[in-house]
Specification:
This protein is mainly alpha-helical. It folds into 2 domains: 101 residues, no CATH class; 69 residues. The chain is built from 9 helices and no strands.
Length: 213
Amino acid sequence: MDIYASDDEKGEEIKQWWRDNGRSVVVACVVATLAIFSGRYWLEHQNTQSQKASQVYQQVSYALDNEDYATAELAVESLFAEFSDSPYAVFSSFDMASKSVKNNDNASAQTYLNWVINHAKLSTHKELASLRLAQVLLLENKLDEALSLTKASTSIAFSSLWSELQGDIYIALSKPEQAREAYQKSLSKINQGEPRQQILQIKLDDVAVSKNG
């Protein structure tokens, strides 16, 4: 049995429902349309920003390849100012830090690595920057600062590298026993056959020779 007595009553029922709910339906449609367009705009904006950041990063790489450090620095400053959330800003910082160390400009290297530590979104990038910063501090003979960084790390992925670096620092501090323990710990965290295994074993053997000598 039809719940409506007639087509007229059905029509009146629909009209009444529209009078009661029409405004809500219109508002919902408008909101949904705006959400769709705003979402598309955001995605397009993100894509455009990423492309721009990539282009600036290419400028950094090209300038560094040609040893045009002044141009590279300006491009990196642009990345920091306009695209600090982009991974390209992080990549450029690592590149600049590496070039700085090669040019014996350890102060600049520390500045770029600290930028990554303070601004990178990925913990992997932060951890790698901390590891490289500790290496630079070792080069600067700032042994206590470098050692503090190795002890502060809780990284699993970089644990072997941290232990190896800690051993290097203990060697510089003339503490062969602690160095030996650090190298052994580093060895225990890598797989058999890895290229670093031979290097670590040489360091460990050198510590033993030094101790016996």
